[in-house]
């Protein structure tokens, strides 16, 4: 089975691309979705986060206060590293489990920090979702209701657009409309189905 590592900067359109791959019956294992499941109430990872960051990181409903945690880890690199040490090994273990049990001819592993965390050993090919930086900033600001400074803080922990592209086996440039984006996904899907026969 062939494993495609899908990555891209924040606001590049990774979620829309993975959604369309799923409509083509391609299994998608999303690191962000897995991370969210790991910090649900009563999960061991959430207890570790509380131990490290304190009980104030939890809302009155017992949920993780994601906004507060994001503000902490993106403003303090040491705190971000602590969080990554808790979550990244568990995310990787979960993804490996899914890959090992996948019956499809190929699957997608969506991981925003695939390159930055040096986990390319998980995948056979790298698909980068690329977007113009100005468009990227505007999309993130509108989606998350945050400032230019907050966007810059988040993107500072990610590879630059240029560096990310040097790792790409395949690129989808998300600079048009949904119809065009979906067409690009469908063309790649056809190509992947052929390539997967070699694995």
Describe, in plain words, how this protein is organized in 3D.
- 23% of the residues are buried.
- The protein has a 5-stranded parallel beta sheet with strand order 2-3-1-4-5, with helices on both faces.
- The longest helix is centred in the middle third of the chain and has 24 residues, at 77-100.
- The chain has 199 residues and is of the alpha/beta class.
- α4 packs across α5.
- The protein has 2 domains: 1-27 and 105-199, P-loop containing nucleotide triphosphate hydrolases (Rossmann fold), CATH 3.40.50.300; 32-101.
- It is built from 9 helices and 5 strands; from the N terminus they run βαβααααββαααβα.
- It has helices spanning 14-23, 31-38, 44-53, 66-75, 77-100, 133-144, 148-155, 161-165, 178-195; strands spanning 2-8, 28-30, 106-110, 125-130, 170-173.
Q: How are strands sequenced across the largest beta sheet?
A: 2-3-1-4-5
Number of strands: 5
Low-confidence runs: none
Helix proportion range: 40-55%
Strand content: 5-15%
CATH class of the largest domain: Alpha Beta
Gyration radius, rounded: 17 Å
Largest sheet: 5 strands, parallel
Short overview:
By secondary structure, the chain is an alpha/beta fold.
Quick tags:
alpha/beta, 2 domains, Rossmann fold, 53% helix, 9 helices, 199 residues, 5-stranded parallel sheet
Write the layout of secondary structure elements.
Layout: E1 2-8, H1 14-23, E2 28-30, H2 31-38, H3 44-53, H4 66-75, H5 77-100, E3 106-110, E4 125-130, H6 133-144, H7 148-155, H8 161-165, E5 170-173, H9 178-195
Parallel strand pairs: 1-3, 1-4, 2-3, 4-5
Helix pairs in contact: 2-5, 3-5, 4-5
């Amino acid at each position: 089975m062939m494993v495609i590592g899908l990555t891209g900067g924040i606001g590049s359109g990774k979620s829309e691309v993975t959604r369309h791959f799923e409509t083509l019956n391609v299994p998608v294992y999303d690191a962000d979705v897995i991370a969210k499941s790991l910090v649900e109430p009563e999960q061991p990872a959430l207890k570790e986060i509380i131990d490290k960051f304190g009980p104030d990181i939890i809302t009155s409903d017992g949920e993780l206060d994601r906004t507060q945690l994001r503000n902490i880890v993106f403003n303090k690199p040491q705190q971000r590293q602590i969080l990554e040490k808790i979550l990244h090994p568990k995310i990787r273990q979960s993804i490996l489990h899914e890959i090992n049990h996948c019956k499809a001819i190929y699957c997608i592993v969506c991981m925003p920090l695939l390159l930055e965390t040096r986990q390319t050993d998980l995948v056979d090919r790298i698909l980068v979702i690329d977007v113009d930086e100005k468009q990227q900033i505007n999309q993130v600001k509108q989606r998350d209701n945050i400032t230019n400074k907050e966007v810059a803080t988040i993107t500072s922990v990610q590879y630059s657009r240029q560096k990310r592209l040097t790792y790409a086996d395949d690129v989808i440039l998300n600079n048009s409309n949904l119809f065009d984006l979906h067409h690009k996904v469908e063309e790649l899907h056809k190509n992947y189905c052929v390539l997967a026969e070699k694995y």
